[in-house]
Amino acid sequence: MNVELSDGVSLYVHDVGEGFPVVILHGGPGLDHTHLSPWLDSLGDEFRLLYVDARGQGRSERVDPESLSLDRFADDVDLLADALGLDGFALLGHSFGAIIATKHAIQRGSAAGYVISGGGDSSEQLLADVEASLEAMGDGADAIAESWEAEKTVETDDELRRLLEAQMPFHFHGEPPPGFSDRMVGSPQVLRHFANMGYGDFDYLPQLARVSKPTLVIVGEHDRTTTPRAARALHEGIAGSDLAVVPEAGHMSFVEQPEAYFGAVRPFLRSVAS
User: Fold this and answer.
1) CATH label of the domain that carries residue 197
2) pLDDT above 70 covers what percent of the chain?
3) Residue 53: helix, strand or coil by DSSP?
4) Domain range for residue 29?
């Protein structure tokens, strides 16, 4: 469904299930909700899952990429909640969506609880972690490094899809599932914008003490992108937070080890909803 925000911009929301609302933010930037749905849909037996295509991305209304920022995306969470008339909600963000969710937890804190799935503590450290992971990877690392650099100049949907395909071995601990990104509606201009500004140019460590709501930080044991190091830094900085490390999983831990992933996420969401 399309939801018009108070500023007139329309966001696409994929609405699954019934129960306490969970707003879900996808990764990227420049991607959409389809790398999370249907993988997270099993939570819909207990919760209303609101997968959001972020402003200017996926099936949402296109906007000038220069108008986009982490602050803009975090503000949109509350604009969406108002537009949908939500009395309360949890916020789950994965990858770039986790970076937005952390920004929201720091600056707004209006969600009942937060799931930071594959998040980052700072853009500088994220890029350093990726570089270190590539150095340790060995075979295939050069092609993946080239694809990351090419994000700064990507122009077409086909180029974006080729970059994603090149990066899949980096994001999975095992073999990526066939057709993982086939349904995706990409936004190459948005990816290019953020790739040239350090993926948001953020540093959360000095601000994490401001997070006051229940928070679950979850990461794959072998995540090369948003690493266990970053997850531990977030966990240590957010008082009272929980940390879950999903064994034998990479960046897409909900795909590779769903039982372990949902074994941590589901009870946390239950506690937030109660």
Assistant:
1) 3.40.50.1820
2) 100
3) strand
4) 2-273
Write down the pLDDT at residue 241: 98
List the one residue out of 189, 267, 142 whose CA is nearest residue 30.
Answer: 189
Structural domain count of the chain: 1
Residues 174-204: pLDDT tens digits?
999 988 888 899 999 999 999 999 999 999 9
Distance CA 21, CA 27 (A): 19
CA nearest 99: which of 112, 113, 86, 114? 114
Query: In angstroms, what CA-CA distances link 39 with 126, 177, 254?
Result: 25, 11, 7
Residue among 97, 95, 102 at smallest CA distance from 223: 95
Three-class SS of residue 34? helix
Distance in angstroms (rounded) separating the CA atoms of residues 102 and 108: 10
Q: What are the tens digits of pLDDT across the range 133-174?
A: 999 988 889 999 999 999 999 999 999 999 999 999 999 999
User: HSE-up of 39 (CA within 13 Å, CB side)?
Assistant: 20
Q: What is the mean pLDDT of the chain?
A: 96
The total number of residues written for the chain in this structure:
274
Closest CA to 219 of 194, 250, 191, 198: 250
Strand order in the sheet with 2-4: 2-4, 10-16, 47-53, 20-25, 90-94, 113-117, 215-220, 242-246
CA distance 261 to 147: 28
Q: What is the DSSP letter of 175?
A: P
